[in-house]
From TrEMBL:
Pfam families: E_motif, PPR, PPR_1, PPR_2. Belongs to the PPR family. PCMP-H subfamily. GO terms for molecular function: RNA binding. SUPFAM superfamilies: TPR-like. This is Pentatricopeptide repeat-containing protein. The keyword Repeat applies. It comes from the Eukaryota. Keywords: Repeat. PPR repeats lie at residues 43-77, 105-135, 137-171, 230-264, 292-326, 354-384, 385-419, 517-551.
Amino acid sequence: MRLRSSGENGSHVFNQNLKITQLGKSGRVEEAIQVFIEMSQKNVVTYNSMISAYAKNGRIVDARRLFDKMPHRNLISWNSMIAGYLHNDMVEEAHGIFVSMPKRDSFSWTLMITCYTRNGELEKARELFNLLPDKRDTVCWNAMIAGYAKKGLFDDARRLFDEMPVKDLVSWNSMLAGYTQNGEMRMGLHLFEEMPERNLVSWNLIVDGFVEIGNLDSAWQYFKKIPNPNAVSWVTMLCGFARNGRIAEAEGLFKQMTDRNVVSWNAMIAAYVQDCQINKAFRLFSEMPERDSISWTTMVNGYVRVGKLEEARKLLHRMPYRNIAAQTAMISGYVQHKRMDEASQIFNLICTRDVVCWNAMIAGYVQCGRMAEAQFLFDQMTNKDTVSWNTMITGYAQVGLMDKALEIFEAMGERNIVSWNSLITGFLRNGLYLDALKSSRMLWQEGKRPDESTFACGLSACASLAALQVGKQLHQLVVKSGYVNDLFVSNALIAMYAKCGRLFNAKLVFKHITNVDVISWNSLIAGYALNGYGKDAVGLFQEMLMEGVHPDQVTFIGVLSACNHSGLVDQGLDLFESMTEVYSIEPLAEHYGCLVDLLGRAGRLDEAFKMVREMKIKPTAGLWGALLGASKIHQSLELGEYAAKKLLELEPHKASNYVLLSNMHAEAGRWNEVERIRVFMKERTTEKQPGCSWIEVRNQVHSFLSDDPSQPRIAEIFSILRTLTAEMKNIGYLPDFISSIDIL
DNA sequence: CTAGGGTTAG
């Protein structure tokens, strides 16, 4: 055997080092580790490369471990570690490295400055920048300029830009990015014309700027003018189309692209996912030559979006590596379906939990109204961000504990507009209009202005309260503030008008939207369904399909409930089938609920019962309730009793369930049973919250609690109720035995 | 003496 010369050996190490870097850059960190382990000889570059590979793939802990145990460190090792922390948004740790390193060069300084600018700490960045006048190179200037520009501090950026000794293309592009990323396209174009030379980055910034402000025509015009568009240009344009629902055009671009990379594939998959075309998304996912963690995460998200949690979970387990984004997507999937046990299983699997996954869990408990558990997690969090605080505010507001919501609001350090929105919406939802108004004024006093979401939230609160007057006032404010063309606001307006029975207004708002999305259609369809116009709702649904908009889970809740309200049995069954077969959307309890009710009312009790028994999900109380109701109408005591048994297992404390069962027996003349149930009911029901209803008259909300002697106009109410009951009897309505006793 | 670390576009 011949001994290899040291030169050959050296070039081998050289090549392996290169490989580690490349694998790290393309997200294939596992393969990089493999190469690293198999190398018999390593030099300092090998370690440095591996540190970067780890850090670029979110494995900052491994990067640090390697850094700590490597035999010799050079300046680049220290810099790589700072860069690693920069990539992982860990500014404090980066600073720790920065202060303890033996020597610093301009790379080190620039890295640290970038850490601060990315973190929004412009003052600290500037402080560092000022500390090293002699070592500042062009890159360092550029970093500082980019920091100012990105934050929209154009004057500061411009001052440095004019001051700097040598400008390069990146300096120009950094200024340009400031304008385009802040929606200042007039200024951006001006600079673009002024630039001594342009590269693809400059062109792509312009296209992206137009995409961001929703001006697809201009984006397209500039895209076409790009001399040699690269993958970034194509992806930017593709995402622009996708985001505006123009999926066909996005598809066309994807097909035309010559140099597709992972990002291009990911973008197209994301476009399909966004349009709920999960099967097309999966086909691309299977076809693509290589997948990175974004590809996997997008697919998991896609399945979550259409409610296919099983598919999502399978995919998550098939992933070649663990990825926190995908795990968080899975968590939010479970959270949306209130499956907190499974969510928390995934949560427990994550070793280094970030804020986002904590927030997802908290949001989950909040949505289930389990505030104690939400608070428990919240208290444990060491790195709360505004999202965490805001979620807690929303949570307490939702369960009616506005005192707690306010307490959280007041305890938080930095409030953003969402914090205010959560608080104001909370007040609105709880009918505390005056407090909402007061908070809105305070918001103005703090120099903040209501934004799109302030209005969208406010309007959705009005929708859930059916508070038309306040809703209308908000609509006027929307017009005055210039948010009429915002899609979120428009959709909230549709929902509000629809819920208040003003279908004409809802339709009017709908017609004014330039780019309706699936949510706009959903709101309108649900509105028609809610107000009893089942056929129109189904008609709208068909219109929506003709327009090429893909329905989602919510669409089907709307259109199925439309069929339900209008007794369109066969159409409902057909639609339900197409939902799973054609659109591959997984039915939720709500969908089954519509169908069971629909079949039940039509007297097709066997089919209804069969559906409940055979469905994939666990039957909810609502489903048994629907079955019980149907059994009562069609006098099927046997099925009714079975449904009631199941129902009472799930909700033993709810009085209305006993009333339903009791009425059924009353109708069948089984008075012993009626009496027995009444006794049961007295024993078991612990209704803490009395039934509550409200109406809005002349800007004021009047609420009614059951058994509430303090209601000021109780006598009038009773007198009107008696009149109404008499009239109902006159036109042939026979009131239920028990409920009539309760009223009269 | 080519590799490894910093600024601008997906």
